[in-house]
Amino acid sequence: MAAGGTTTNVQLGPGRLYLAPIGTTEPVSASAALPSAWLAVGYTEDGTTFTVSLTNEEIEVAEEIDAILTVNTKRTSELKLNLAEFTKRNYAAALGSGLLTNDAVAYEPPVPGTEQKIMIVWDSNEDPTVAQGSPAQGNRRWVFRQCNPTGDLEIHRQKAPNKALIPVTFKVEKPSGLQPFKVFPNSNGLI
Known about the structure:
By secondary structure, the chain is mostly beta strands. The chain has one domain (14-184). The chain has one helix and eight strands; from the N terminus they run E-E-E-E-H-E-E-E-E. It has one helix spanning 88-94; strands at 16-21, 39-40, 44-59, 69-83, 118-123, 141-150, 166-172, 181-184. Strands 1, 2, 3, 4, 5, 6, 7 and 8 form an eight-stranded antiparallel beta sheet that branches. The two termini are 28 Å apart. The relative contact order is 0.23.
């Protein structure tokens, strides 16, 4: 019995990541050029993991043994990355310093309470298993509007082939008047 799926809807590839200061102009589509304020993160170890967690509560009444309603009470979203390019800019963003330049000026972490949140864009990579010109080949883009680095930053310096990574988890927050993230699918609806 055939599964009945569409093979071109199966997506591959880690994508590309870009960072920008809060308030930077957002892209208007999946294929629009990013403004120059968006800076590339570079290589990652395992791509990007985006998690949305919904917490809900069941509403019960004395006359029923089953819940009569389930209400969502909380949604949390986060991005997890292992940055493979050990640059000052990536390290500073992971510690909440916002976006810095990759220059030779010494770096110190921000004073607690002065951390800066950033915006993150994930762009699809072209999928090498899909024919050029196929609708599945088109761009996809996710815009995360307010990202706050959280959690532990544990760096391992080890013998090759292991490399130093910057593991960072960004909590995706809801900015005033906007949703926490926006998704631009390709022309075939793939995200």
